[in-house]
Amino acid sequence: MNGIQFEGQSPVVAVDPNRADIACFVGFIARRDGAALPQFVHEWMGEYGWTAAQLGRPGFDPEILDDVPVPIDSWELFDRLFRWEHRTDLSSGVTYLGAAVRSFFAQGGRKCYVVRMGNPWKRAVARAARLARINDLIPGWATGQVSCIPLDRTSWKGVGHLFGLPEVSYLCLPDLAEAFAVDPEPVTVPELPRVPEQFVECGTEPADLTAGDLVRWAGAPRCDEAAAREWATAVNLLGGFIARWQREVQLVLALPLPKSGTQIERDCHGWLSDQVDGILDAGLVESSRPGVASAFVQLAFPWVRTAGSKALPEQLESPDGVLAGVLARNALMRGSFHSAAGLPLVEVSGVSPAWGAAHFERPASHAGEQGTSRRSMAERVSILGQTPRGFFLLSDVTTSLDEGYRPACVNRLVTAIVRAARRAGEDLVFESSGEALWGRIREGLQRLLAGLFQDGALRGATPAEAFQVRCDRSTMSQNDLDAGRVIVTVQFQAALPIERITVVLGMHEGGQVSVQSSGNGGA
Fold it and tell me: For the chain, N or C: smaller number of CB within 10 Å?
């Protein structure tokens, strides 16, 4: 025996829905052979309902980690459980999911969930085969409606597992851009320079080209106009799912790279925000052309080069993992209600396309009367870019058409209030509706808002100017009282130069809290 090795056993950490720094990654990655599942993960699955009986999967083996969320609290644990550095054929480089999770922790993230939806496809697989697997990520994608049911755990697949993860704030699908990308061009091996013949020492041979070299020379996944519209349809479906069922979650996705020679490459922002068919100037409920404009959708661009992307095509990884990690660091250090713009990026050594800050800050080429069309790309997409001091997050915005919800920190502030109200509803679910209950609800929300005011999240010289909470007979009708609904009206001014926001919260019979309406229509 050479020595004694001690391995620390992590405890089962209770779920904390008030956290605002946890991401959920859904995608394709292989399980690492021979890596036993830690005991605390087994215990977590049993305690929070991820067993064969509760999932309705006879013979389900938790060790396989197939279509089930796994709590990950460090990069070392992820690396131990998942074969992130190889595709299915073991010779074609890093997976996009693995690179995204690595960047999440590198940027300051402390906890995430990983939902493995099977092994990844091989590097150069045809587009039709990739599209066929999108239904694993988004159940019901082929039918145009997410098929997961909130109260039916057996229906939870892919993104549907969010119903059982109340502490998740960010949803990332790092494989989505590659799934919709056009078929890649054949790999062109650069011609090596000719050298004159010479004697060499016996036994030495020139090194052969490795699979990693071929991967780096391969093209990163790119979309033309048609592929980008298909991608936007999936984002529209995801955004609608979150807006209806998971309003406390932000969808963080990478904007796909444009294919060379397309209109997207020539004028990316102009194409995205075109008033006729641009995906940024159409909301989730637009019937004629599905768009991605929503307070619940945050797009990241351009793609990045990091220490973990060296074995990816063009050494580029999708930026959604980087952005999610920066948002997590911002929540832990300063509070999620602060803008993350201006925070430095860790381990980022380059971006592509390298258009520069001036490109992202100019208005769309077709800017007209519509206010959103006059906005620059940095005001519609969260931009990662280089400055004289290094690489930084240049903008922290949603794709919302509503100016009040365009700063992403506003939507995160609303989320913090809604989460606190939901927790209060769970504690008061068995209380009789009346003046006593309404007073307790007012006091709890006033304490929360007073704390946010002291932290600088709200604007006003005094708490009375910054917020107002009403929960009495003026906020509820007799029908509400008869149905067991408690309606709370919360008005507040975010610490930004925007209009006052009004959010009406409803606590239904059973303790469920929902947003009845918002004055700015940010959804």
Answer: N
